[in-house]
Structures are given as C-alpha cells and as structure tokens.
Write the structure tokens for this entry.
Amino acid sequence: MFHKEGHKIILVTLIVIVALFLLTDSFVTIPWLSTLLMIVFLVFLILILQFFRNPNRFTHRNDDTVVSPVDGKVVVIEEVFEKEYFNDKRLQVSIFMSPINVHVTRYPIGGKVLFSKYHKGKYLVAWHPKASEENERTTVVVENASFGKVLHRQIAGALAKRIVNYAKIDQMVLQGEDSGFIKFGSRVDVFLPLNTNIKVQLNQKVRGGETIIAEK
C-alpha cells in the first residue's frame, strides 16, 4: 500500500520510466548499454515505490505511553529548553529517517491537538544542531488527560523539500494514526515532560506507531 502523498509522484514516475524504456529500446543499439540503462530506470522506480510505501502498523493505544512517530534511528536523547511552545525544559527524543525508511508521521499520543504550526526555513542536513530551529518544519502539540502535553516536530533535511502536516487545532486524534508525511527527509523531534520514563536508547531503531519510546 502506498501513501496518498505519493500517488501523483508515483504515476508521473511510472509514465517517465515507461517512456525511457521505449526510447532506450528504440535508440540505444549497444546491448549492454541498453540493459544497464533499463536496470537503472527500474531501480529508480523501485526506490520511489519504497519511499512512499505505507505499511499497516498495529498501535497498542495507551494514554500512558508515547509511541515513535516515525521509522528510523534514535539520534538524540537529552534535556533541552523548548522555546516555541512550552518555554521550559523538556526531554527531547530525536529520530532520524534515512531515504529508505517509511516517511509517514504518526501521532505519538492520542488526544486533542492544541497547537499546529508550519515554519518555512532552510534545508540543513537533519543532524545539524540548528536544524530543529532553522529548517523547514512543523510543530504539533497533542494533549491527553493521562500523559499531558507532547510536542512533535517534523524537520526537513537536505533532501526534503516538502512537509505535509494534517493536524488541526482542536481536532481529536488517535495515537498511531497519520499525522503527516515528510517527502525525501529527514527527522522528527519529540518533546516530553522531564519526569517521563524514556524507553529507548541512542542508535536504537524504532518503528512508527509501534515502538514505545516513553511512558509515565
């Protein structure tokens, strides 16, 4: 199954690849070169299809836990000062997505959306210290009565050129359901209360909507 954000890109890519196959077959007369070009085109198509895949995930919904919003690797676990919404100290867990990861963003907790904002910005590499503040990004805050307020921030990277965010203020959302999509990038930061029990470690691989990254 493919994510809806990729339907148009997949269709255009498929048309282009078919056209390139036909042109190669008609005009490239060197057999080995023709075969090589067709393999390259096919690999490119497979990469596009893989990037926009949207596998089913089975979230065990629990208001006392926070699930990973994305697939990837945990690259930051630290206490920071979050200045866009909370203006106080929080525990930050950052997850980096490689181009081969699923890029669907999911809600880490269920509850009511209190804040949702898009910021234009730069396209620094995702692991750059200033990426969270200077890159194109969206910030979403969800609250439930049990866990409290959790902020997750989609951050574009050097390759990402568009972030999609579905969260609307006052909307009621379910833990693990689609929150958005990052096209060709890059990282999601999660900001948690200081008394949160972190359940992941640095460099651990996580699965969006399934891996528990924190609990009360």
User: Anything to note?
Assistant: Residues 195 and 216 are 8 Å apart (CA to CA). The mean pLDDT is 88. Helices lie at 7-27, 31-51, 131-134.
